[in-house]
Design brief:
The chain is an all-alpha fold and 197 residues long. It has two domains: 1-43, Homeodomain-like (Arc Repressor Mutant, subunit A, Orthogonal Bundle), CATH 1.10.10; 45-192, Tetracycline Repressor, domain 2 (Orthogonal Bundle), CATH 1.10.357.10. Helices cover 77% and strands 0% of the residues. The protein has nine helices and no strands. It has helices at residues 3-18, 25-32, 36-42, 46-71, 77-102, 106-118, 124-139, 149-170, 176-192. α4 (46-71) packs antiparallel against α5 and α8 (149-170) runs antiparallel to α9. The longest helix has 26 residues, at 46-71. The relative contact order is 0.11.
Length: 197
């Protein structure tokens, strides 16, 4: 493992333990077994380190989302949504503590909110990409034409986020089989809806 990766792992550990506000680059460097100067050779600031950490957590989830346009009309909609739900849960599990800590530093959030808007990045993009995928499946007749694709995306990703939030709050590590069952039930419920007809 190279030094940059070691620093990212140390930052993840320290922020989860102390929270973002009480985390210092000095403490991160100590846990990473390097000098604070070495840390600054790889990251401009604590904020830069935090943003790079979040981006690292996001990579797999984004990879799954960016495959969705080529998934249109392939496999089943259920399989594609299950793949998205699994990646979303994995991402939320890694990032929920980190993203929540952003709200404890309003000036940090404000600075980065602006740059996210400029680059059209941020949490809303996942919902937009998934909504566009469901809209494309509607056009092929593979998804219910009566649903709002963006609302369906919001329901799926929102349920995944809330599921992880509940587990984190309770301090529960969910067995893999239970997570799979949750995903299967969630996607099936989304596809069938609540209408008795």
């Amino acid at each position: 493992m190279d030094l940059r990766e070691r620093i990212l792992q140390a930052a993840d550990h320290v922020i989860r333990t102390n929270g973002l506000a009480r985390t210092t680059t000095k403490e991160i460097a100590r846990v990473a077994h390097c000098s604070e100067g070495s840390l600054y050779n790889h990251f401009q600031s604590k904020e830069d380190l935090f943003v790079q950490m979040i981006k690292g957590h996001l990579q797999h989830f984004l990879a799954v989302l960016h495959k969705l346009p080529e998934r249109v009309g392939t496999r089943t909609v259920k399989e594609n949504l299950q793949e998205v739900a699994h990646a979303a849960i994995e991402y939320f599990r890694l990032s929920i503590v980190m993203t929540a800590s952003m709200f404890t530093e309003p000036s940090f959030l404000s600075r980065h909110r602006g740059s996210f808007v400029e680059r059209n990045e941020g949490p809303h993009r996942a919902n937009e990409i998934l909504g566009a995928y469901l809209g494309a499946e509607q056009e092929l007749g593979r998804a219910n034409p009566a649903i709002n694709p963006r609302s369906a995306a919001d329901l799926l990703l929102g349920a995944c986020f809330q599921h992880v939030f509940h587990l984190q709050f309770r301090g529960v590590k969910e067995p893999e089989e239970e997570e799979k069952r949750f995903i299967v039930d969630l996607v099936q419920t989304l596809l069938l809806g609540a209408d008795p007809k």
